[in-house]
Amino acid sequence: MLPVLLLTSSASTAVRQRTVESVARQSVEVVLCHTPVEALATSSEYVVLVLAGAELAATACERAVWFLATRPGLACVSGAAGADSAALVPLPLDCIAQFLVVRRTHVQRLLDAERPCPAATAAALAIGLHRDVRCGAGWLAETVLTTSAAAAVAPVLVDARRSLAALGLEEAALVEMAASGIPLQPQQRLAAVEHPSLTARLAPTSGLRILMLVQGFPMGGYTAFNAELLPRLVGAGHAVTTCMTEFWRTEWRLDLVRAVAPDIHHVLSTVPAMAMPAYLDWLIISRRIDVVLLSHSYAGLHLLPYLRARHPDVAFVDYVHTDWFESAMYGSYAAMAERWTGQLDAQLATSHSLVEQLTSQGCDADAVRAAHIGIDTQLWQHRGPRLAAVRASLGATSDTLLLLFSGRLSPEKRPQMCIEMLAALLAERRDAALVFAGGGQLMQALREQIDAAGLADRCKLLGELDEDTLRHVYAAADVFIAPSEIEGVSRSLYEAMAMGCVPVVSDVGGQRELVTSGTGSLVNAAGADAARYLEGVRPWLDPIARASASLAAREMIAANFDSYRTTTIVCETLMLARARRRMRQDTLPPAMAEELAVMSIETMRRHVLRSVGR
């Protein structure tokens, strides 16, 4: 059992109880202690210190122990406060004072030296370790504290900062920011990584135990799909563990998953890249996983031979969202799915056209299913006239043709073409306006393009919107424009059609499976030619034709692409995979270490270039 030492604070009984409850919900078995002697009486190698009033993420203790287990040079680790709570503070010392995991040997050492009781304050213990052991605290970059004991920690920080000043130290000196996903750092041998002595607390289930491997939770349709699918799998009776396999990803909409499936792991913010196989191995063993479901996890695909060799009774399923992924260097995700098809028990894809592509490349037709990402058509619906008040706020009257671009503002989406289309419509003396809903790297470039064209009164950049606000914008708009160069099937296309916006979109991926005759326009995506998309808009300039297409678009999504249908297909495919388990490979690929090193370097390269707009 992992001992958790509850530190005293000025928190009320009710607040203190919430801390105790968050400790009880940890993903591993813990024992609550009230004195250091009591904590050291256990056999655990680690001791967790939590300030009464703070509440922990479900996997906080487990991830902290893994962090220390793979970094023998560190004595303790703390971690970040979640960005979704206004009460939280981001400074390292605030977090250290509320949550600290320490090697048992160091706690014992300080007690033997008759230092001040570690139960007094975790901050004092961290400072003592830095002074006596010359060892900074490690840092978990992802959320550890979900609720802060901000009021209770204030007096503790006064004394802690006074101690730091006496030692001539800055607060930052306590923390070693071990950005584990960044390449070119000293790596450990795979053989040296052993599972720490922990016992996982298993969620009860009447269905499968599923490990979902995802890149992370970046803003976009990929995340929106995962954030809806995971809770639906739980609702279908399955137990879900989520693991993010890239260090740079954000937590956009992760709260939707955390609410029902809090067993969430940020692997490269927890362990070095070379320890990723051991961490995934631990998750499969400790959770008694039945099926591993990969959702565009580059690392997960490349680790398939290892994981299959380690776990011959586990089924592996891949979900392919799109054909695109830096194809010049790696080949697309579809190409990778074909490469690893012999290691997979079943495959899923976002469209029938992508299924046909996979099977034409050699994937087993009997094991590939189309599961369109779908949408909750009860939540995403609009009936009645367009919202006059919202239209007015967007610069449109009842007679204005209101165009909408909704999605990530990135080069492959080609949002600049929408501005060219608006300028052409206005040059024809059409009453038109354009709205962008979404964020991304092209935001500033679009703003400059709008200003240069003198369209500021006809074009608005709304930035990233919450779903309720976004639905109001869809309900106010007339035509949805998506001139993407590449797509699987755009999540925004489902949203727009479900809300009755008439789509004018690129004929790429599987989008023709949604946009059929009478529901909107498909446009040849070759070349950045805004005139083609403008011709796609022309049939819908007539209000009567537009109203008819609006109803047809809504009916198409409601009849064929509801997300409940998608969940059913996914669940059936997971069961199919269990029934189709194939002979596993018995040997590791000889160059796995090199593969992981290249993956880490190329992940950094991709996102450094992306951050500078290349």
Describe the structure.
The longest helix has 20 residues, at 592-611. The chain is built from 23 helices and 21 strands. α19 (491-498) links the parallel β19 (479-482) and β20. α4 (92-98) packs across α7 (150-167), α6 (122-132) packs parallel to α7 and α16 packs across α20. It is an alpha/beta fold. Strands 1, 2, 3, 4, 5, 6, 7 and 8 form an eight-stranded mixed beta sheet that branches. Strands 11-10-9-12-13-14-15 form a seven-stranded parallel beta sheet, with helices on both faces. Strands 18-17-16-19-20-21 form a six-stranded parallel beta sheet, sandwiched between helices. The relative contact order is 0.09. Helix content is 39%, strand content 17%.
What does the secondary structure layout of this molecule look like, with pairings?
Layout: E1 2-7, H1 13-24, E2 30-33, H2 36-40, E3 46-51, E4 55-56, H3 60-69, E5 76-81, H4 92-98, E6 99-103, H5 104-112, H6 122-132, E7 137-147, H7 150-167, E8 175-176, E9 209-214, H8 221-235, E10 239-244, H9 254-258, E11 264-266, H10 276-287, E12 291-295, H11 298-302, H12 304-310, E13 315-320, H13 333-339, E14 346-349, H14 352-360, E15 368-370, H15 388-393, E16 401-406, H16 416-427, E17 432-437, H17 443-452, E18 459-461, H18 467-476, E19 479-482, H19 491-498, E20 502-506, E21 521-523, H20 530-537, H21 543-560, H22 563-579, H23 592-611
Parallel strand pairs: 1-2, 1-3, 5-7, 7-8, 9-10, 9-12, 10-11, 12-13, 13-14, 14-15, 16-17, 16-19, 17-18, 19-20, 20-21
Antiparallel strand pairs: 3-6, 4-7, 5-6
